Structures are given as C-alpha cells and as structure tokens.
C-alpha cells in the first residue's frame, strides 16, 4: 500500500518536472531570485490546492476511473465535457508547439554551417525523429522515455553539482527591474506545476483512496518544488543579472540560456551539461505530451466512428505544432504562456466550478479541501487573472517577461 502511494507520488513528480522548468530562468531574469521564490511557493500552494479540489470531486465520481472530461459532464452536462476536452486538446497543442520550437533551437546549434536554414531544418528533424516513436507504439515511447529520464536525472545532478558552488550572494539578492513581473511570468511558471491530467490515473491506481491520493499529491508536488528552487538558485546565483538579461534579450531561446551559462562560468563542460539536460528535458516532455495528444485524438475520432490509423493520427498530432514552430521559431516562451492560459482553465477554474456544485449537491462528503468558500473564490480570481495575463501584456498594462 505504501509502495503504491510512493509510486503515485513519483508519477506526479515525473509528470510535473519537464521542459517548463527550462523557461523559468528566461522569464525570471529581470525578476530576481527572491521574487522568483515567492512565485514558486505561491503557485505550488495554488496548484496543490486545485489538485485537492479534484480529490474532493472524485469522492462522488460515478466511476473511480472516470476522466476529468467525464467529471465535467457529470456537473456541467455535455457542454462541460466538450469545453473541457477542447481546452485540454488545445493546451496540449500549445505546449507541444513550445517543445518543438525549443527542441529545434537547441538542435540548430549542431547545424550552424547551414546558415539561416539551420533552425527550420532542425525543427523538422526534431519533430520527425521523435514523432516516429509516437507512431510506432506506446511501448516504444515508454522504452525511450525510461532511458532518457535516467540520463536526464544524472545530467541535472551534474549541472547542480557544478553550478551551485559558483553561486554569488550579490546575484541572489538582485531585485526586480520592472514592476509586476511576478504577474507577467505566472502563466509560464504555471505550466511547470501541471500534472492534473494524470489525477484520474492515480485515483484509479490507488483504488479511490482519498487519504493516499492526498499524500501522493503533496509529496509528488514537493519534489519538483525543491528541484525548481535548486535550479533557480543555480541560474540566478551564477548569472550576473545585467549580463544575463542582455544575452537573453539578444537570443530569447534556450540557446540564450546556454550562452549565458558559458559566459558566466567560462566552462564548456558546464554549458554542455546544461545543453544536454535541456535537450533531454524537452525530449521527455515532448514524448509524454505527444503520446497523450495522440491517444486523445484517437479517442475523439473513434467517438464519431472515424479510424485514422497511426500515421494519420501522427499527422494530426504534429502538423499544427510544427507549423507554429516554423512560422514562429523563437516562440518558445510565447507558446508556453498561451499553454499556461489554457491549463489555468483546465487545472484551476474547472475544479473550482465542480467543487462549488458538488458541495451543494453532496453536503455529506467526508473530505473537503481546506479554505472553504473563501478559498474557492480566491483560487477562481487568481485563475482568471492568470488567464488574462497575456492579454494584459499585449495591451501594455503588464511588462513583457523578455525584452
């Protein structure tokens, strides 16, 4: 029993830690380490709370293996199912687009001799090579992911081992250069705590045991929080803020992060370790999201009696994010920001709405998430604010996170 709980916590942690953490230093360069910590803790509390709201709702689920779209239909009817499914599919497309642009930019460093053609060719190669594993089978994706995940952990440990001793106190205490950056960066950071799509899986795995599900969520989100703090400490502490901002503004991609690492440490070993870790984080995240989107599209088509075949599903899965990456090759941060908007609805606004109805429909529920009605209202308001952030940035009411 305990092993299942711990295994579920690791599943939560593994789903949470991904390519989103790579964007953290890019979007928080002007924010400083102190405000970055505040944002990390705030979003950890908020998204752990929203996950516990799902736990509360699952007490009255018609089936313990019910998906979140099924729960939405239970409380909001078919309209709720449709909106939830659409938000999930578009979210996965958006975050897949971010991974393709990020992976393409990292791979482009190997093809500098191609000049301006390096980036589009790298984006296409990144998508096709990894897409082949998706089309072959889920077991092929599983085998590749297991191998790369182990290497990724080793690379991350190596990066921290080499960078943390180089942290300087004057870099750590750097303050924000613009007001309200902590709000502007929230959608990108929001995606870094996104694991809610697997709650139905672990709820079924734990046989609907509410207590063990709560432990798995708290422990499973605590592991990424520690990893994120160490990662942010390493980057903010090693990079002088002014130098870091200058490099990032000139190259707002993951290559900019690697270039900043080299300039700050003057070590090809450290910058190469950061490149390896970044590449593996992107690939493992890409594979996880891509196979989820692949299966989701398959289920949707089967509901309307269309059989597309694995190659057809592969085309539907990868053409939209590939097109985005080719037209916006530097759109890594932008795509993550829009993904954060959609995930905010799916991972925060939706569970607040379901719990609001559930507490009135089922007043006898044995478990209720902390905070009462006030907690629901605060979570809803914060969710709506985060969803509006990209529009507020575009309108000039909030500063851009880069530039």
TrEMBL record:
Which coarse location class applies to the principal site listed for this UniProt protein? membrane
Q: Where in the cell is it found?
A: Cell inner membrane
Q: Is Transport there in the keyword field? A: yes
Chain's role: Involved in transporting aromatic amino acids across the cytoplasmic membrane.
Recorded family membership? Belongs to the amino acid/polyamine transporter 2 family. Mtr/TnaB/TyrP permease subfamily.
Topology class, membrane = Multi-pass membrane protein
Instruction: State which residue ranges cross the membrane.
Output: 39-58, 79-101, 121-140, 147-168, 180-201, 213-231, 276-297, 309-329, 335-357, 369-393
Annotated Pfam families: Trp_Tyr_perm
InterPro entries associated with the record: Amino_acid_transport_2, Trp_tyr_transpt
Q: Does the keyword Cell membrane apply?
A: yes
Q: What's the protein name?
A: Aromatic amino acid permease
PANTHER family linked: LOW AFFINITY TRYPTOPHAN PERMEASE-RELATED, TYROSINE-SPECIFIC TRANSPORT SYSTEM
Q: Which UniProt keywords apply?
A: Amino-acid transport, Cell inner membrane, Cell membrane, Membrane, Transmembrane, Transmembrane helix, Transport
